[in-house]
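User: Here's a chain of 160 residues. Predict its fold as tokens.
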Amino acid sequence: MRTFETALWALFIIATLFAITAGVSPPFVLASGGLLSMLYFYTNICIVNNIGFNNTFKLSAYRDISVKKRILSIALGFLYSLSVVAMIFEVLRWPGAHFMLCFSLFFVLVTLFLFIARKNKGNNSDFYLGLIKRNGFFLVVFVLFIVLSQLIFKERFSDN
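Assistant: Prediction complete.
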């Protein structure tokens, strides 16, 4: 499942860069971003808890996961899905993009700090380390995305 996630991220980033720089048609951004968003929305509990695709529908794969981690995984799936949709909206210059991007960025930062605090309390679980890495990745992608899109769009649409 992680390989599929990585491939979708690569496609989404490439499509986004083409859309921002060359003005390539948005269906590539919509398709790759939509698939990535759906992946997080529907299967984040599997991705975060290292459950493979073959075990996704097996009840025994979820028995060792606490209810707290299940709820957290589902909530993070919603947050990650919203983050990808916000990036799609920003690339396509749709209304509400900045609000969704700022909202997502704020909650990614909040959850990142909460996971770091949880990890520093002595919880040596790989679960929180994986979430710190994932939220850090989202934070880096957000910052690069915001900076690059603003620089390129300002240059492309300036009145000079």
